[in-house]
Amino acid sequence: MTKKDSNEQELLIRELGVFELRGLARDYGVPSPTTKKREELINLILEKLKDENGRKVIERKRRGRPYKKLSSIGEIVSQMTGEPGSEEKIKKSITFQQVLAFAQEPVIFEIKDDKKYIYEGIIRKNGEYYLFFVDNKWIYLVDNDYIEKLKTGDKILVEAKQMKNEDQYIVSKILKINDINASEYQIKDIEKGEEVLSNKTIPFGETFITEGRRNAFLSKEDLYENEDFKNLSKQCKMKEISLMALSLNTSYENQIYFKGCDFENFTSPYGSNNDINFNNVINAINYTQRQIDMGKKCILFIYDLQELLRALDRCFEKDLHHEHAEQTIIIIQKLMSLGKTYSSGESCTLLIGYNEKDTNDDFIANEILRICKKI
Are 177 and 158 in contact (CB under 8 A)? Predict the structure, then answer.
């Protein structure tokens, strides 16, 4: 390999997001990539690439289920080695379902001991089993008496045992599904009918939110500095509206403020890692969609739009010519699509907070605020 090829290879690797780097590191046999920082991953991958025979040796050592990749690591490797057609494959469109599977870890189903732990989370489907992410751990549900009652987006409380990989657990017992004892829980889905426009409103601060729409409000002070969200949570409880909040890397003051509010919490404190932030977003989407499918009215409160975009961009490869990663845009589009009302009565209302400086971002101005009702 020439020095020029080597430099181009390094540039390609440095453009990858943290999840892509982990997938590539895992494919090259780098041990425990989730515990390593970005720069360390890059250096370890580059070291592996110097060994011409390393790849064949590594592949024989790999264990567990295949890693779910957003962009095939094989295609990234092909691009690095200059095989024709690889660049076109990498640039092909991706879907939200691919994004869902993207950050999941390979798993080896070997139990460490019989000690039992209690975890609660929002489940999603991955092939033949369910799983959820909580406290930097993956909890897997492979087989259970109540597994047929589950759907993506359900909130479950489980008893689990730790596996050989210390950040992975396997469910031994489902205790609750959507806050109901698992033995008593029955699947509730409704026929939603057609999408309709609604003129119903809900008070928020000095204004009103329009039900089943994407509502955007200009945030002039931090959330904890007024009672608007707290009062909204009281209104929702009174009217039996499910309230969810999605806010990433929020201030310490906001985290204290949230303790006095009643809502489904998909917020993360300042300084949270990419895994937590990414999975908070996915969980918020899945949970909200499940609430709609169960016939509930709900509000998804998205605070600090710009930080949401920044946090997602840190997870993915971003083209230097675009403001945001393609995967970030797909996730935001999915979030925007949740805002709607159905003829049968259920609805999802989005309430999105943005800062005055956020309008300098073309994507926010032209793709998000353009389809929102400003309140």
Answer: no
